[in-house]
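Lecture 7 notes. Example A: sequence first, then its structure tokens.
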Amino acid sequence: MNLKKLLGCALASFIGIHAVSALDIDVREVGAVPDGKTLNTEAIQKAIDMCSAKGGGTVIITGGEYVIGSIFLKDNVTLNITKEAALVGSTSRDNYIHQGEYTGLINALKADNIGITGEGMIFGNGQAFFETDNAPNRPMILYLQECTRVKVKDVFMKNSAFWGFKMSRCDGVIVDGIRIYNHCNWNNDGIDIESKNVVIANCILTTDDDALCFKSDVQDFIVENVTVTNCILSSNCNYIKFGTASSGGFRNITISNCTLRPNETTLPLKWGNTPRDWRKLVPGVTKEVTGISGIALEVVDGGLMDQISISNITMDGIQTPIFIRLGHRNKDDRKGVLKNVIISNIVATSESLITNNITGLEDSPVENVMLSNMIFNMKAGGTIKDANMPVPEVPDAYPENRMFNFQMLSGYGMYIRHAKGITLDNIVFNLQPGEEYRPAVYAEDVHGLRLLDMQAEPSLGNQPAIRLNDCTNALISGFSANKEIPVLLEVKGNKTDNIKLINNDLSLVKKAVDSSDKSLADKVTVK
């Protein structure tokens, strides 16, 4: 073999394309009928099996609507759904084959070099499976397990009965330019990622549940080496979420250049006999349609989160822009680790009184989180009682912004508890119209806190801009205000020590430090 041909073969192997001798099969040639009625599972599976057995190629879906149950991609086969064609999920559960806990309309198990391409549609018919939250035996649209060299490009997935697209313990997945619209059932996620070496780009996800969700169900598998970029995400739940499943963990993941926007609609779902109406459930919500959290980083099952970078994000229609939680919902499991997170260049408008928050456990703090270059337009409405109300620990509660007994948190801009090595750099906290008595930032049991170049609108009632409770080794520098601030910093708690206010603009600050305990005030250095 000459060098040119050898290099060509190596490139084909690297990017996962088929050999020149690949076979193309139009599914109509093997008996598939695109009439929207005939069950075509057997015919299309026959085309896939034939194509794979002869070395691989493309199975072409064209010319109408093909009703199917579960089909399985095989090695070296690409399923190409042309623009005028659609695969339509059967409405009978009898036509779906389970792979362990889950099933899908399109499946693959331990397949190599597979793809789904084309501008056609995969329609899940999910409304036919509508029951209750967490109802079992509902098919996803696309379910891939332990596959290698996967490419999913340009297809439109609509109305899954369950999650839209889950990749489970796969290695080497490229997802480019797909659209997902899931608004017909409970648990209508967009893309669920439990794989490694993954690239997701240029996608539009519109979902009733989590839009982009990283999951880690297996203790010995780390979700790692993932890049997500240039996507538009909308959700009635979480826009970007890590967890809730977090047994193994997440490492070395980058998300950038995404727009998060509210959905145009939401399903009239109920929890028990209670309608899922955020206006009745979450303090401060007044809009009919909102998402829960813009960026939710959750480790609650003993796993690891390490080296996460998220940047260049705009958010609208969101209750809580940033939600970071290290919890422990199963007392028999080991405790998790959440560390080394950078989130930067964020513009967000909040739609609830449950603020941004970073919360760990008293004996398992969140570590080394840096938030920088952010503008938050926060909802006003907290009272003095709200500012001083104890927030429950609830270490084993399901992680979501309303987990603290549906109450608002003690700061209108940021609430931090049980953490170390936390940096807020160049953060602007604006207030939407209304009366607000909570401080902009509340921190409790936080060690190594740095608040740099912060701007915050003042609270009412002579409340401080920053309240620290049992914090040590904190630096506040570069604070500035465009309105009069009654108190810059209030310190509380017998453990508070080594607090420094250095190089702050105090021209509009009436009082730099306030404390009911003079001995605590003496632990604050002002320069």
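Example B, a different protein, same format:
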Amino acid sequence: MVLPRPVSDTLIELLKPIASELGERLGASAVNERFAEIGPSGSATLNQQIKKDPRWMKAQVKYLQRQQRREQELIAIASIEEEWVQAERINRIKAEELRDKRAISRLCRELMREFQAEAIRLKLSEIQTIWDRDNWFSNLSRQETEQILQQQQHRLLLLVAPAKISEDCPDSFRHNLNIELPAKLRAFLSQHYPQHGDLCPVQFYGDYFKKPISDIDVERLQTVLSPVPTAILYSDISDYEVNFHIGFWGVINQSVSLVTMQPWNWEEVYHQLKAEGKDEKLSLRIIRQIIVTIQKLLAAFLADLYYLNIDFTHEPQLFNLKSEFAQEWFSQDWALPYIETLKEIQQQQRIAYQGEMRRLVFREAKAKAERKRVEDAELKHREEASAASRRAKELAYKLKNHNWQCVQTLPGHSSFVNSLAISPDGKTLASGSWDKTIKIWNLETGAFIGTLSGHSDRVNSVTISGDGKMLASGSSDETIKFWNLHTGELLCTFPGHSMEVNSVAISPNGRVIASSGGADNTIKLWNLRTGELLRTFRGHLDNVNAVVFSPDGKILASGSSDATSKVWDVESGKLLRTLSGLNVGVNSVAIGPDGQILASVSNDYTIKLRNLQTGSLLRILNSNSDRGRGVPSLEMNEGLHILQNYVSRGDSVAISRDGLTLASGYDDNTIKIWNLLTGELLSSLSGHLGTVYSVAIAPLGNILVSGSADETIKIWRCD
């Protein structure tokens, strides 16, 4: 005779598939979703959002650090001989670990609620429309629905619907099951998953649904309760079997998931119990109890699974509830598939968490290193700024106390000395004059070296190449000439502009020369080796009086009688910006050695210092004491430093190679020396008997050369 199988074996076979399916769909997905990106659809779980929150990451790093400290302390405790001391310290460490885990859990739920808030607010505003659109919602409590959404504590919402019981079922089912099911589930969850507990709160409703529900009703309900993670248990019972259903959302994503267990043949168990000698009433009572207990198991499993997903510190309650599912007529082993599934998921979560923590610690270490780098850079910057400020003060003091003296006067020209250039090594001086000649001098001794003749009209500009081998000159005879500086040989002549050539400049790399014209109002760029015209810059409305290259050769600045300076891109020829001043011409321009400052001297008795990159006005050195002709009010973002010291018109400007000193020549026959950093007037040099048309500063900054309408060149030296 074949003995009937125990009820527990039947239940294990029934429950195993659902444990595996839920474990695969929820547990494994939870591990994968932990590292998923939040997509544009907004379907990411709250869990994903939390993992990206700085507060969560900070708490995780702090927890990890404390955990590492505890591990080190446990290693040290092992060497203590007294067992009671060991036990006491181990208990203290365990208590601290538990407190830290619960703090992490609380933070998790607080952040969950915070991220839910906006979605809940929107859903509350939509409820009336949803209720009016679908008559099914009249089967629910509108008040309870709003209360569910308005709960301030984050929790898993668990709902159980009345079982759909066939008319052919025994009266015992139809009269008692829908009373026992919500009551016993409520008691079970209140004891082990209390709504206001610290570990895994579950908000349970056993009377939310007024009648049995189906899959479509679960999907309808999700349109209202989508912001709240929710699980719903519902079942239907025929005259011989039970179908258990689970619907949920918010555990992995916002989509509705529907799971149905294999039907359980309760009639088979009923006959088995009868065969064991139990009467009909007791047999039906046992079956009802099994149905309720299965629902308890599913509820506990879903709750633990949810909290495992959002909280790596969660220890499933189900591990301690085996006795809840043990009955005298079958063993407790029928809950094992769910317990084993949770243990497997817990292990997966811990592995995933460890990987996540390694990445987090790495990112935190990287961020910490970057913060330190920034802090060190800021500290270094402050120290450098402080040192620079000290040096600037020291330099200002030294510059202020420099005593400039005229050490030589060089006669030789028979007309105005209009332009000066000093070779890069500081040994040679070239001077251009209205007497149509260029003269070469030994700057160290003042000795005359020779005269370069060839222009048929006044020489307006001379410049020396960066390698010190070539000299270029521009003349009112409309030509540009190139000379060997050492031999005096005329190398070539370029036709320049339609009238006079006012200014010439050689690029730092020695490949390009810029020239500015008179009546044609243009600037031209030439290939210095071939004489080819590269491009023409147009934009000025009057004579272009001066051109100069930036130290890197990428920018060209110009000054014009149209009362503007312009900044050009050398490579493209594009006009970068126009710098307008007062309604007076710009006679001369110079760029500081760092390429940041553009100085321009104008007929308005001022020198303007601007940021070459932005065009912003940094400072004005003003030589006009007549308030009626002073500087007008400027924009709020223009830094002003106005020095009023003398009445004169500026004709030339030069900046020292160290960027500390600016020299300017004026029509009151003087040369002014300025501290370029502070705008302070350091010296006023007198000695010329005519307008100072040109000034140049030697590379070492200790020699200044000036050319004047008095037909002389003066060499000034500071002690």
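Note on Example B: DSSP finds ten helices and 35 strands in the chain. The first strand starts at residue 156 and ends at 160.
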